[in-house]
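Margin note: ligand = coproporphyrinogen III.
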Amino acid sequence: MTALKNDRFLRALLKQPVDVTPVWMMRQAGRYLPEYRASRAHAGDFMSLCMNPEFACEVTMQPLDRYPQLDAAILFSDILTIPDAMGQGLYFETGEGPRFKKVVSTLADIEALPIPDPHKDLGYVMDAVSTIRRELNGRVPLIGFSGSPWTLATYMVEGGSSKDFRKTKAMLYDNPQAMHLLLDKLAQSVTSYLNGQIMAGAQAVQIFDTWGGNLSSAAYQEFSLAYMRKIVSGLIREHEGRKVPVIMFTKGGGLWLESIADAGADALGLDWTCDLGEARQRVGNRVALQGNMDPTVLYAKPEAIRTEVGRILASYGKGSGHVFNLGHGITPEVNPEHAGAFLRAVHELSAQYHE
Ligand code: CP3
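Resulting structure:
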């Protein structure tokens, strides 16, 4: 394998010294880019982009070609590949988000769910990872990812996106044993899926717990964090002679940072509702931090974006252990030039915080 030409992302996740603060954006390959929209039209639809390794590679590279400041690539795929591989029948209704043909409602439904084999059932994702690694040729590290068991469970039980998670919450409180069985199967599936991605060439992995913040404090511990901890303890942590850092991102998890920091990950993703400097104090030396600019700041003009980047960098202060990112995914309405201004500001304004 080619040596990495830019490893500041991996170094910052392990709190090793860097020259400037590394940066990438959640959902960096997406609809705000005209070249992405063109590829999607060419492929036919979103799932065809995910399932064809050449297309997945093409759209993964698009933001890197446009923005030389990006310090990491993220596999182009979706968290819902796992439920799809469990037989739920994922499809996307234009403008409506993800949907499943089959919904998980009963203990019998859960008992019948298979644990997908990453190579047999999700081989297209493994192929996308190795194709992207080859194409990157050491330019920047490649991030693999998965949804957290809790976040995946919400989509499987609701049958798609939800505002209030009525069915999932009802199952959790009515039938906690059924919910635990579902989460346990998902944790096993996620562990082997992420290990498959690591063996195929992912150099760091992120667990997206998009809906963990919707739980009560007690339920978060029992139904989300416990399963992420289990996953992390089963992951391959070193490959090709380098550490493979794990990033745990619970959106809305700001109140629970101390316990998340103890769950075994190398870094925590933060949304924009917590102050980065305070978060650093709270987690101490245990983990690195990733985040946390409000993605809607990108609707403002480049000068205002730069000011906000400066404020966040100052809040973190001196030293390594911070990967700059948005606090959640970039939205389709963002002007690509504003994203460029954001990325440039991170590198230009952060040099002063590193030796
Ligand atoms: O970050 C990246 O560039 C990598 C690609 C990526 C996608 N989805 C591509 C995508 C990643 C990391 C995801 C993760 C994902 N998918 C999450 C967790 C992250 C988060 O945002 O909290 C979730 C909850 C999903 C499920 C999902 N996939 C939803 C709810 C939707 C519809 C969203 C929407 O805006 O319509 C998707 C579709 C999806 N996944 C798109 C992309 C680029 C848009 C599809 C399109 O082109 O129309």
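The two ends are 30 Å apart (CA to CA).
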